[in-house]
Amino acid sequence: MLVVMQEGAAESHIQKVIDRLVSMGFIVHRSSGVLHTVLGGVGPVNDFDPIEFEVMAGVKECHRIVSPYKLASRHFRPGGTVIKIGDVEIGGSQVIVMAGPCSVENRDQIEQAAEAVAGDGAKVIRGGAFKPRSSPYSFQGLGEDGLRMLREAADRHGLLVVSEVMEQAQIPLLLNYADILQVGARNMQNYNLLRQLGEVRKPILLKRGISATIEELLLSAEYIMSGGNYDVMLCERGIRTFETSTRNTMDISAIPVVKSLSHLPIIADPSHGTGRRDKVLPMARAAVAAGADGLLIEVHHDPDRALSDGAQSLHPAQFTELMGQLRTIAKAVDRSI
Amino acid sequence: MLVVMQEGAAESHIQKVIDRLVSMGFIVHRSSGVLHTVLGGVGPVNDFDPIEFEVMAGVKECHRIVSPYKLASRHFRPGGTVIKIGDVEIGGSQVIVMAGPCSVENRDQIEQAAEAVAGDGAKVIRGGAFKPRSSPYSFQGLGEDGLRMLREAADRHGLLVVSEVMEQAQIPLLLNYADILQVGARNMQNYNLLRQLGEVRKPILLKRGISATIEELLLSAEYIMSGGNYDVMLCERGIRTFETSTRNTMDISAIPVVKSLSHLPIIADPSHGTGRRDKVLPMARAAVAAGADGLLIEVHHDPDRALSDGAQSLHPAQFTELMGQLRTIAKAVDRSI
Amino acid sequence: MLVVMQEGAAESHIQKVIDRLVSMGFIVHRSSGVLHTVLGGVGPVNDFDPIEFEVMAGVKECHRIVSPYKLASRHFRPGGTVIKIGDVEIGGSQVIVMAGPCSVENRDQIEQAAEAVAGDGAKVIRGGAFKPRSSPYSFQGLGEDGLRMLREAADRHGLLVVSEVMEQAQIPLLLNYADILQVGARNMQNYNLLRQLGEVRKPILLKRGISATIEELLLSAEYIMSGGNYDVMLCERGIRTFETSTRNTMDISAIPVVKSLSHLPIIADPSHGTGRRDKVLPMARAAVAAGADGLLIEVHHDPDRALSDGAQSLHPAQFTELMGQLRTIAKAVDRSI
Amino acid sequence: MLVVMQEGAAESHIQKVIDRLVSMGFIVHRSSGVLHTVLGGVGPVNDFDPIEFEVMAGVKECHRIVSPYKLASRHFRPGGTVIKIGDVEIGGSQVIVMAGPCSVENRDQIEQAAEAVAGDGAKVIRGGAFKPRSSPYSFQGLGEDGLRMLREAADRHGLLVVSEVMEQAQIPLLLNYADILQVGARNMQNYNLLRQLGEVRKPILLKRGISATIEELLLSAEYIMSGGNYDVMLCERGIRTFETSTRNTMDISAIPVVKSLSHLPIIADPSHGTGRRDKVLPMARAAVAAGADGLLIEVHHDPDRALSDGAQSLHPAQFTELMGQLRTIAKAVDRSI
Questions:
Q1: A90/chain C closest Cα distance in angstroms
Q2: ipTM of the complex
Q3: Each residue of C271-285: pLDDT tens digit?
Q4: Among D243, D289, D290, whose Cβ lies nearest the Cβ of B239?
Q5: How far apart, in Å, are the Cα atoms of D205 and each of B54, D141, D164, D266, D280?
Q6: Which of residues 50-109 of B touch C (CB under 8 A)?
Q7: Which fold would CATH assign to domain A74-332?
Q8: Taking Cα atoms as reference points, which of D270, D213, D261, D263 lies closest to residue D237?
Q9: pLDDT digits (tens, 9 = 90+) for C179-189
Q10: What is the pTM for the complete model shown?
Q11: Domain C2-63 CATH superfamily
């Protein structure tokens, strides 16, 4: 840890900072330059907030040197993590496509979706059984019935299942039906939920909050991993900016940034990232070109009648077209799809 | 609802939009201008997403005319809501100050806090019993023991209690000890929690999420109110922007904006809004000058040793100074403190 | 134009709005719904600010129906604009790569750059002669000497020249040496400069400001076009957001959004968009995958010794690698490079 | 300067960074911790970009220790700067109000404005003579005629004049008529203009760009000061965020932040900061409560007919009301008005 004192900071202020560092167990190195005194602290403690030092008299700024996350950092596994589920590898040379409707609505709908996306090369089917809706009067999901339909359709077509877990109480249910448990953007910092998922032995797909920095996303992954579950994949799905022509601004650069900072696979969700069907294709292509390990895409056989998120769901024919384009793009980055 | 068609939109596209509106139960008025055809829809449905129309062929844009919230809108109670708890009125002519430590640490600490803040004119004591911490190794709060200490200290000094409820399961416990249940910024869109709080008969203090628009804040209030609990106060506590010299950017203009759009009282939290003790005083003054109905302020008798958020906690002497300044400022806006 | 009145707006307030609309030359249609009165205005005037109505008593909101830009809108030229310079076509089926150093430093440097980028298939060489530097002590560019070197190197290698014009007085000089005049992000709303460029008969490359919406970018293009110069290409180069792991957040979704809203070609600048060499390759690939008509890329034979922006300049070998990848990706979107 | 190497960085990478630092004239201190090697550089150079080191192999991050600005920093003049113009002191114990119309429209208008604002206690009249308008067809300002009218009205009422300079060529004209030269938000990083204003001997009012950080604002002030003109006052006028219920988000916390980082006076512009008349009063009060040294406020005797920015101009009666409130608030922060 580095504490930079203000120009001309009083000796008494410097001593107070040194005392506090020492009391926290740090070994302190002091170095005095022409303008600034810098205090370097080496110690076992990393769980502190630099701002605690920045409000002390005479302090200019405080930098943490050691990353606040360890298990999630690239240094922990320089070769990268490959999550294996059956014969599907996420984070390997193949780009894994997870597709399906926003929510499971009925048996027919999910069967049609499974058939369509499996036929085009998706490896995982997605579908929500619990829907957090901003209106109390909207469709809230089919619950366990939905999960059962999803599982059955997946099994008929050789697909894996990813579905969202919205609160701790739902974990056992999800474990019964899903292969990958998804944590939604609004739950990215629900620490109680993350802690429980650390004890689970199935892979987690962790979505970035719409106003979360990449560092915060990695800290949330660390939270899960610190419980012993290392199979975490991250997911970029758009951040909130001043631009209003898209629902969110999909941060494609997060893909290479995560790749440098972490060993965890990174998935892109262009459906939520854009909110509009006509922008999903270009952004899905961009994500793969930027190095994404997978995609999460909403597909519905009749989007205009979807019970949720119809505007961002692809028609099956669009999905077919997209998969063709992605196969070509994957080659440019030495991958397959 | 208004759907504006693109210049030269095909008649078939216009008809498709009309058909969809009619099928949703709208009565449609069509008006053709030199450049654009505009379709106005009057109907019972308000729970739809304009983007569903914007992705239709030939559509330029779609505007909801009716606000998505009703109970929370100023029109619902033009005179404004005053929440009464005993002889304390929130939203009335007095500016209500709620102060105390970030978290309840022990009996002595909370007693000292209660004595200090009551002596300076605060009406409510704050203190967390459950702390959502980004590190699994940090202090997680004292739970029910903390709530009991808080209640006892409050009672000794004639204060009300506000404390945060972090998940549904904690509601009964909070109801036993607190007068006001606080919903944290990260839970602003935890709809299951909001729904439960709609059935509670104690006032709710609802914090704005760091990337939530004011409209989204009002929608979350609506969620609670639609359950029958109309005693909701809103709280501005800083939004995330590109500026990094403060932890968050406290959106003081949200105070007058909420006042025009809604009848609900608006509280300001300059402690979380700035993250730094030295910025709390000016921002607390600014909030009252802008018309806030109350303040939520962290005060600790020994901030350097606080178990959480010490950097943003005021020393008791600073709190005393602040209260003096606020009394003067309140007069400028025809209020007392 | 549409003015939506508040619920229960007084008749006198409605009349005041009608009077104002009529006095501005609008023909007004009034429609009264259950909750809201809506006033539709049809008229010749489009140059007004909706907020002027929104501050009137009883008004809820005001929407402009007609886009504030016309010449720049897709509707004006549904087939899209192709800018032809010699045998280079920008906006056609070929993706045009413009590459070269941030600034022209000396004859050798620019010759090496021209040779490298031409060899790999770039059609245009970039290089700044006037550098707006945040420090008054930094390298300020070679001025006309730099332009001459750039032109000569370009001619030796069959390349076109793009270079930035920073103020009106530099226009004649740029016209002498460059084929495309670039307007930097900070000048995107320098209306005097834009007006002058409307009278020029060479293509303009207009960069998006770091906090400009796409609508504002199109309005600036309109400013140039209204002077008679229709050869405007737009350029996405990153926006400012809360994320700090990249200098800017490159808004890849702006590429398909511009394609829907406008007929003008859209170029992407991943060098400024990311600020870091190691992120330029993935973002350049993403831009082409998302449908960009061209790229603007910084290349320097010795980036560590570049006089400006070395950190974001590619080594020539990286550029070669990138061009190979882009050729594959271009095929996926039915284009060549 | 501090370069933090990655965990386990190769010795060859460390040496490369040391070599580069030495070649730039730095004396390098190396300190090896359990996880990270940290290189501290002391030297004469401060004009470099940390990112140049961050793209080097093995580097984790690079921090500048010395602020990039010196003359603008609080340390340079711990007591604060008071700018004296005649008997008006900006930055002293009195809060200085600058008020008047957005643009000078005619002799009558500006005379009425001068009379009104002087009567209520303003010390400076504002009014634009050159208007940068987003539409080429809008009112562009009266130019020198406007400045003359402004000067005459000011002199009749004992007011100082502040007016905007939009480009270098206008400086001599402004010097003839104005007491304070204003640099607009869009010109905050127009370095050529800033350099010229460094040679001027009249005070400069420098507005923060809508997406500028406070550090960038101070760097722009430094640019002017490095030319010898130390009479710079800064102005907060709203930043661009995701919130759309106000035109900009006025960053009130910038006021105390500037006060800690710099000795320069800070002015607030609630008219541009909010864009709406009904929000100007609360935000003006908030700015003074937060410690602003002055206000810049638009007042027009007939805002509905103003040729520019009518929606954000106060009626004279509102201005009178505001001044009364401000007098009370000023007392709370030991100031007068």
A1: 20
A2: 0.92
A3: 998 999 999 999 999
A4: D243
A5: 44, 20, 9, 9, 20
A6: 60, 63, 65-66, 75
A7: TIM Barrel (3.20.20)
A8: D270
A9: 999 999 999 99
A10: 0.92
A11: Phospho-2-dehydro-3-deoxyheptonate aldolase; domain 1 (3.30.70.1140)
